[in-house]
Amino acid sequence: MESLRQRQIASLVRMLHLNSEPNSTDSSYAATESKSNGAGVPIWKVLVFDSFCRDVVSTVLRVNDLRDNGVTVHMLLESQRSSISDVPAVYFVQPTTENIKRIVDDIVRDLYELYYVNFSTSLPRTLLEDFAVQTTASGTSHQIAQVYDQYLNFLCPEENMFSLHFPNTFEAIHNPSMTDTAMGALIDRIVTALFSVLLTLKTIPTICAPRGNAAEMVATRLDAKLREHIMNSRHNLFADSAEDIVTQSRRPVLVLLDRDLDLSSMLTHSWTYQALIHDLYDIQLNQVSIVQDDGSGRISKRSYDINTNDAFWESNAMLPFPEVAINIDDASNAFKREADEITRMGGVKSLDEVGDLNMGASTKQLQRAITTLPELTARKANIDMHMNIATSLLEMIKERQLDVLFQMEEQLGRQTKVSILEAINDPEKKNPQDKLRLFALYMLANDGLRPGDIEECEAALKLAGCDLASLEYIRKLRSLNKMNASITSPALGTGTSAGPSGDLLGKFSSISNRLAGFTDSSSLGSIFSNVRNLLPSRKQLPVTCLVESAMGNRANAGGLGAGLRSAAGGSSSTAARMFEDFVHFDPKQARRGNLAGSNANALRGSLAADGAAQEAIVFVVGGGNYVEYQNLMEFAQRSTPRKHIVYGSTDIVNASSFLAQLSRLNGTS
C-alpha cells in the first residue's frame, strides 16, 4: 500500500512532467520536443512557486530530485525574475487573487515560452473567470498551455503524517476576539485541505468527531463537501481508476479530534530520537538547525536535512535515544571497517587519498575501490550528521537533566507535591520551562490538588524564573470544562522504566571526538550500557485509545479503559460513553445528517462486516506532535492484523511553541 507521502510525491512528479506520466509524451509540448530532439530527452523547465507551495515541495523533494525531473531553476513567485524566453515554466501556487495577478504580469512581460499553471487546490470559478478575462484582455491567453487543480495543499514530513501548515491554530480557535466569520473561514481552509488529503489517498471515509467544538464543525462541513462532490460532480475525482474503485471496499474511518482532548501529550518530555529532536530543536520542513558552542565562546549554527529515504533515520526515528546512540556507534564502526578495507586494497591511508590509488593493485581491487567510494562517502556524511545531532542532544540532556524529568513523567502517578517541589527547586535543572511543563503535567493528571498546594508550587515556579501565563490559561480551560469533560491524561504510572533515578547519565561521556574522523576506538555501546533500561512504557495516549475504539477493536476494550484512566481515577466506560456521543457521518449515504448514539455501532459495522476496521485517518484540530504520531504507529504495528493509520494536524508543534500559544491566550482571556 502506497503511503500518503509516496502518493504526494507521485503527484508532484507528474506535475513537473507537465501533468503527464514520467517519460511519457502525452502533452503537446513533450510531443513536440520528442520529435525534434528524440525520445528520452528531458524537457528542461523553470519551476515557480509561492512560499506555501515551496514548503510543500521542499518537504518531500530536494534540489537533485527537481533536477532529475527537468527543473533547472526554481524561484519564488514574489521574487524579481529575469526573462528566460525559450523555456516553459511550471507554476505551483495557491489560488489567490494576488497570485493570479502576478502570473498575468509574468505572461505580459513574456518571461517564459509557455505557462503550465497548477493551483495547490481547487480554483474558484470567480478567480478562473478573472484569470481568463485578464489574459484575454492582454492578448496572451495562447501562451497558457495548462491550468490544473492539484489538490496538494498539505505537507508530508513523514510517510503517513501530514500537516496543513496552519501555525497557531489552537490560539486562533480559542481567541475570544475571533469573529464567527473568521472562524468560518478557518474551518473552510481546514476542510479544503482535508479534502485534498482524501483525494490524494483516493478514499471517501466515514467521519466521526466529538460534539461541541471545532472538530464537529470540520466534520459537518467536510461531510457536506464530500457529499456534494459525489452527488453533483460530472467527474468523480475519487474514482479515477479500477484499482481505486476496488480500494473503496476497504473504507477507513476519519477521526477528527480537538486539541483540548489532551494537552498533556503536547507538554511531555520525549525520549525517542525523532520526538526528542523536535522537542529541543523543532523540525521545520524536515530540516533541523542546531546552535552549538565550540567551547571558546564562538557560536555556530548548523542545519541538517532529514531525508526519509535515510535508512538509519527510518529504522531509528522511533527508538529511545540511548539505543539510537549505540546504533550510531555500530554504524560508525562498520563504516570504519569497510573504509579500512578499501584503503588497504588501494594502497592509501584514507578515503581522501583514493585519487592516489596504487596502480600496482589488481584491476578488480581498483574497480571495487572506485565503485564503492561514492556510497561510502555518502554513508560517512550521513553518519557524521547523526553523530553531530546525537552529540548536541546528549549535551542538552545532561545540561537540563531531561532523563530525570522523563522518568518522573513516566511515573507521574507516583509523584507527590514534595517530589515535584524538589524538582522545581533543584538548581541542577536549569531550564525554567522544563519545570513548568513538569508541574503542568502533574496538575493535569491530578484533579484533586488542593489550592494551597497549587499556590505553593506556583510560588516555587516563579522563584525559578517561570512565566506562569500558560499555566494560568490551562487552569482557565479546566474551569470551563473544555478539557476534562471526558478524558484528561493517560495512565502515566503504569509503564516500566529504570529503577532509582540516580545518575542515569553517569556513564554518558562526550561523543564529540567521534565525529568526522572516527578516530576513537572506544565504543558508545559501553557508554550507554546502563541507560538501555530507561525505555518509554507502552502506554496508549488518549488519541490512540479513541482511534482504537473508532476502529471497532472491541477485543481490546479493557485496555482502552486502562489507557484512558488518569491519575485522578476513571473507568473504562468513560471513553466508551465519550465515543458513543461522537457525531458520525457517512458521505456516501443518501440521507444527510449525523448518525449519533447507538447508530454509531451500525456505522462501524458497515465498515468491515468481518471485523474491525483496518484503516484510519486521524486529524487533530489545534496542533499535533511526533509523540502522538509515534504512539499511533506503534499501536498500528502491534495490532493483528497490522492496521494502517495516517496522522495529521493543523500544524506540527513542539512544547515550547505550544506554551507560547497558551501564554498569549492568557493575555486575551
Q: Could you describe the 3D structure shown?
A:
The chain is an alpha/beta fold and 669 residues long. It starts with a helix and ends with a helix. The chain has 27 helices and 14 strands. Mean pLDDT is 82; it is low at 34-39, 241-246, 482-533 and 554-572. Helix content is 48%, strand content 11%.
Which keywords apply here?
48% helix, 669 residues, 7-stranded mixed beta sheet, single chain, alpha/beta, 27 helices, 5-stranded parallel beta sheet
Q: What order do the helices and strands come in, and which of them pair?
A:
Layout: H1 4-16, H2 28-37, E1 45-49, H3 51-60, H4 63-68, E2 71-76, E3 89-93, H5 97-108, E4 115-119, H6 125-137, E5 144-149, E6 155-158, E7 161-163, H7 169-174, H8 180-201, E8 206-209, H9 214-232, H10 242-247, E9 253-258, H11 264-267, H12 273-281, E10 287-293, E11 299-305, H13 311-316, H14 321-346, H15 363-400, H16 402-410, H17 417-425, H18 432-445, H19 451-463, H20 469-479, H21 524-527, H22 542-550, H23 557-564, H24 572-580, E12 583-585, H25 599-607, E13 615-621, H26 626-638, E14 644-649, H27 655-668
Parallel strand pairs: 1-2, 1-3, 3-4, 4-5, 7-14, 8-9, 9-13, 13-14
Antiparallel strand pairs: 6-7, 8-12, 10-11
